[in-house]
Amino acid sequence: MTNLKLLSPDLREFRKEFNLNSTNTLTLTSPKILKNEKVSKAPTAVLYLKPSKTACSSAGSCFSMCLNTAGNPAYLKGKLACRSRRDLALRTNKDLFLRNLVIELFRFYSKNRNFDNVSARLNGVSDHKWMTIKVSITGYDSSHLLEKYGIAVTAGAYNNIFELFNSAYDYAKNMAVSKTFSFYDYSKHIDHNFELARRLGYHLTLSAGSLFDTLSTAIENGLNYAGVLNIKRNAPMPKFITVKGIKLPVIDGDLTDWRIGDSNQTTHVVGLRVKRTPNQTETMRRAFCIA
Predict the structure, then answer these.
(1) Rg of the Cα trace of the chain?
(2) CB-side neighbour CA atoms (13 Å) of 214
(3) What's the CA gap between 291 and 285, in Å, rounded?
(4) How confident is the model at residue 10 (pLDDT cuts 50, 70, 90)?
(5) Cα–Cα distances in angstroms (integers) from residue 35 to residues 28, 87, 176, 239, 253, in the given order
(6) Which of 71-102 are b and which e, b meaning 16 or more Cβ less than 10 Å from the residue's Cβ?
């Protein structure tokens, strides 16, 4: 008899090849993300992939200030190696990578289903256009999810991962998974289908440092605009700042990363204090920071 609580043989082999498992596919312990659970009561999982010209095709001044190399130097080498390994796994076999990702996201959700809000960021330090990436799950995957987590998802092809999660039903809570589980990201792309994102429940915050005019796009689409301010870590966040001649109210984006909870009645600046990265200079900060 097949043990459906085990992953399918092809996924087990894929995970072995790229040293992926349930402890290193998603990141759950980033200090900023932990604030989501403590401050916003919304446990959050993040997918960290290697940033690159392909993964971040709209990146401008942010490239030199990328937070990919931020954090404790003692852990940097291992952290970067893990992100590169995930990136290689995605580029080598996108189908298997996405199937593994789907299962790990449902695993994370199932461990936190007692919360009113659970979330995931698929772009930790990358900017992939996830709404355009198709994903499929097999009949075995579908049975595995039902047997192990009590979650029903129809096997087949979906236009994107958000569509798949919107179709999922949690028998443990007798409700759709999407009632409590949401996706959000920061992005520097102005060519997203923002209406589709709203229909899918994919919360986007546009950010500064792009090759393109993300501020105008944010205002046109009723989105918030994230930007880094060149102020000290403990300095208070200003109530308003003027960006490109436009005065906008400011949200302190360092209090929590859970952008879904931000006010969106009008465009706000999500202010983020500048973080130090290796070899950072004042010239780089001036080019990247919005104030």
Answers:
(1) 19
(2) 26
(3) 10
(4) very high
(5) 11, 26, 26, 22, 11
(6) eeeeeeeebeebbebbbebbeebeebbbbbbb
Q: Domain residues of the chain, as ranges? A: 9-288
Task: Report pLDDT digits (tens) over 252-280.
Answer: 999 999 999 999 889 999 999 987 766 67
What's the chain's length in residues?
Answer: 291
Residue with tokens 């129809």: 154
Which of these, 111, 98, 102, 94, lies nearest to 144 by C-alpha position?
102
Per-residue pLDDT of 83-110, as tens digits, reads 899 999 999 999 999 999 999 999 999 9
Give the largest CA-CA distance in the chain.
68
Q: Who's near 291: CB < 8 A, 6+ residues apart?
A: 227, 229, 230, 238, 241, 243
The tokens describing 265, both together, are 């009645």
pLDDT in tens, 109-123: 999 999 999 999 999
- 156: CB partners within 8 A, 6+ apart: 136, 137
What pLDDT, in 10s, does the model give residues 168-207? 999 999 999 999 999 999 999 999 999 999 999 999 999 9
Neighbours of 140 (CB within 10 A): 18
Mutual angle of helices 139-149 and 94-111, in 10-degree steps: 10
Strands 118-121 vs 169-170: parallel, antiparallel or unpaired: unpaired
Cα distances (Å, whole numbers) of residue 253 to 61, 107, 220, 241, 276: 20, 28, 21, 14, 16
Do the Cβ atoms of 40 and 261 come closer than 8 Å?
yes
